[in-house]
Amino acid sequence: MEAGVPGVPHRRRSGRTRVSGRDEAEAGGCGTGPGAAGLGAPLGERATLVQFSSAFCAPCRATRRVLGEVAAMVPGVAHVEIDAEARLDLVRALGIVKTPTVLVLDAHGREVRRAAGQPRRADVIAALGEAV
To answer: pLDDT tens, 60-117?
Structure first.
């Protein structure tokens, strides 16, 4: 898939999906979690780490690295990064108030944990324990 096309998720080498824009068909799903339709990206088989970021956020870059490393070492876990500025609809629907914000979703797309700020690797791993 071509990088930089709004609304089209594209896969990076790290195995994470970055979602920058949205299609009208993606507007669904908040409630208990955003689900794959709301994210515009596929969920992990066991869990999904969803990161809301902004372009000039230094803690977001560190969070991207931590979540990417955890997703790479735990089978069935996906890391999806969402540009908060490009997805204001989803930010508002989910009550995201700062970046980075990380949601831990179970295999069905239900939110099981949420944290704002830069997470520690141990905390991410512990949160995944609740989701899988």
So the answer is: 999 999 999 999 999 999 999 999 999 999 999 999 999 999 999 999 999 999 999 9
For the CA atoms of 8, 12, 15, 18, what is the dihedral angle to 10 degrees? -40
Is the pTM higher than 0.85?
no
3-state secondary structure the chain: CCCCCCCCCEECCCCCEEECCCCHHHCCCCCCCCHHHHHCCCCCCCEEEEEEECCCCHHHHHHHHHHHHHHHHCCCEEEEEEECCCCHHHHHHHCCCCCCEEEEEECCCCEEEEEECCCCHHHHHHHHHHHC
